[in-house]
Write a structure and sequence with these properties.
CATH topology of the largest domain: Muramoyl-pentapeptide Carboxypeptidase, domain 2
Oligomer: single chain
Protein name: M15 family metallopeptidase
Number of domains: 2
Number of strands: 4
Largest sheet: 4 strands, antiparallel
Helix content: 25-40%
Mean pLDDT: 93
InterPro entries: DD-CPase-like, VanY-like_core_dom, VanY/YodJ_core_dom, Zn_M74/Hedgehog-like
Low-confidence stretches: none
GO molecular function: peptidase activity
Distance between the termini: 19 Å
Number of helices: 4
Order of helices and strands: HEHHEHEE
Bound molecules: zinc ion
Amino acid sequence: MADREKKFLLHPHAAEAWRKMKATAKSQGIELWLVSAFRSIERQNRIIEKKKKKGIPDRDIFRVSAPAGFSEHHSGRAIDISTEGYTALEKEFENSEAFQWLNNNASVFGFILSYPRGNEYGIAYEPWHWLYKR
Ligand SMILES: [Zn+2]
């Protein structure tokens, strides 16, 4: 699917839900940008290997990155969202109007926040990461 600058891959149902959600948000003055979608197992492996080469301990890597094969991004149903004026994939996104909007409206389109603050998986809080669950 085409977004601003890159092409992203998503499961067709998730892609359609995303398009509707983005358009609805826009009609209400909220910009939602897609910053990542489908990611292959190989790509996840490369991300983790790169972090290991930098000397980042496993404990820290796996708090923020799922092991290859276990990322919700492999399903084509997970998206990372950003908006104007915020750095992608940073917790400050929670202060944006876009995040407030998502909290109030994303479930209508079938998207849920996978890793809320203090989640049961022990995964770092990710206000930008939403999963299409329908
Ligand atoms: Zn994500």
